[in-house]
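REQUEST ID: PR-0412
SUBMITTED BY: lab tech R.K.
PRIORITY: routine
TASK: structure prediction, single protein chain
INPUT:
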Amino acid sequence: MGDTGCVHFGSYVKEYGYDSYSVVHAYFSACISKEARRRKALSCLCYKCGSSGPQLYSCLHCIYFACKGAHINEHYKHTKHFMALELCYGMLYCYQCRDFIYHSKCQAIAERHLRREARTLDKSLSWRPWSPSRVEIELLLKNPKRRHVTALTSIGLRGLLNLGSTCFMNCIVQALIHTPLLRDYFLAELHECTAKTAAKCLVCEVSRLFQEFYSGARGPLSLHRLLHLIWNHARHLAGYEQQDAHEFFIATLDVLHRHCTLAMSTAASPAATTGTTTATNTTNSGQNQSSDPNPTQCNCIIDQIFTGGLQSDVVCQACKGVSTTIDPFWDISLDLGESSNGQSLIDCLERFTRAEHLGSSAKIKCNTCNSYQESTKQLSMRTLPIVASFHLKRFEHSSLIDKKISTFISFPAELDMTPFMSQKNDTADFRYSLYAVINHVGTLDAGHYTAYVRHQKDIWVKCDDHIITTATLKQVLDSEGYLLFYHKKILEYE
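STATUS: complete
OUTPUT:
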């Protein structure tokens, strides 16, 4: 098909030219003026049912509006008018090809209309796919050699020097570097900082690290600048002793989140700058670590990728009234249970989302009964993040003893979170793929962290500080597992 549409559109252009397309797109898709918006509001309705959408098509032969599906199909069968414009996204549709088509000249017309629309509404241009400029085309023609990615490529792999008990940091950095959408964000250089703040900005340092990882160089990197910035912004992690990788992960997300928020051109509300932490079953842990009352407040890249919503339903045992709260989370901490036998991640999630009786010593005031009553509490997932992170609580701390739990917990390469959702939705897809695993070997006092990361599809590597070696999926799934990172298989865009 190429960039000139299809043969049917070619015959349409010979008969009608581009005027009909241009007018329909300008007035009923992009809406280039106040008058165009008025006309669309008054006349852009399905001629069959009078509906305004949600998805309308316009026949380019006779400017007939109809809903997607039966109504526009009926018009085509009756008139044999085969070219239509989908008005929501401005896409050409050929009924003879039974497919959307691309035409470079129509795309250029559409781009001009979208720019005019943006100017009249005093707004920024919405996201558009990248297309090379004239200068970029010339550069591409002058440099025809391309770097081909093969199964043996090492681009994106770099070892990390251990600066003295810093394996906890190295493994978390490897997991973040191999988070697909985070990689796309930083390699696109979307983060901007002023010269004054860049030296103290953790996001700028992480952006530099992504450039280093994907530069093609193979030597190990030193994370001394990153460590120094973390020390400055998360003082509880400062010092040369071994730290907990999970604590470092949450602290890093928190600092990145705060620095992203500060760097955003539109000022965030005060609530949006409050860090989100870990979802923990509060009936077991005795504390609720989530602090941001609204996970949708901030739209920084960290929250876009890592933030989910945890629903808590408290049911009064007297009147059965339900009190529901929703807290944001960056990861989910899971108890390993009492059994010393092998368990699974699914077992831990089922235990996490099981209804629990709070007991007579933890009565909650019921708004309906207007008195303190015994109740049950159940956790479930209201919304899931793009990256679902699970923390298996292997380190147990008490006033009597600190110990590590080495119980084997099996975890799958593919995970379906549907059973743990608050609301059943037949159209949503809650399937995830494993892409990174953090392991801790040794004792609580003398241990070492390593990471398995998925470098490419079906290709795994083990990151042990500065040493990078290939690994099999079986080795990954047979590992002890401390932090598990899953990426959503299908992304929904709003």
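NOTES: Residues 265-275, 282-296 have pLDDT under 50 and may be disordered.
REVIEWED BY: pending
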